[in-house]
Amino acid sequence: MAKRLEAWAEELLRKPILARVATVDEKCMPHVTPVWFLYEDGCIYFSVQKRTVKARNIMKRPYVSVVVDEVSERGTMGVTMSGRAEVMEDLKFFDKLSEKYLGSVDHPVAKALRSLPRIVVKIKPEKIAAWKF
Predict the structure, then answer these.
(1) Is residue 62 scored above 70 in pLDDT?
(2) DSSP state of 59
(3) What local confidence, expressed as pLDDT, does residue 116 receive?
(4) Beta strand 30-35 with 38-40: parallel, antiparallel or unpaired?
(5) Backbone φ and ψ of 9, nearest 5°
(6) How many domains does the chain have?
(7) pTM here?
(8) How would you class 44 by CB atoms within 10 Å of its CB: exposed for 0-12, middle for 13-18, buried for 19 or more?
């Protein structure tokens, strides 16, 4: 079971900033890409198009690490989570992502992205590290 995050780390995970997701390809090479993410009930959710390298990697090797960090005038802070990916077809989390990053599911970009074949990925972290300096 992963440890509980401090309030500042949970606040960071609620911001509309990018996460970087690391997957593993067929040659055991890391593949890192930026994603919109949602932090809810201690889990990370993100959505990807079904035909991407990231989606294929997750479906074949479901171990994923996620990094969310921010540099500001207050310093640097971040959270790293690792765990097993669960692929979901339920796009309600994509709608929540659209609201977080675009303000509405009716935004033209949200509509365009939702029209593509997508999956939602849920990560229930097995390891968590948070830092602030």
Answers:
(1) yes
(2) H
(3) 85
(4) unpaired
(5) -70, -40
(6) 1
(7) 0.89
(8) buried
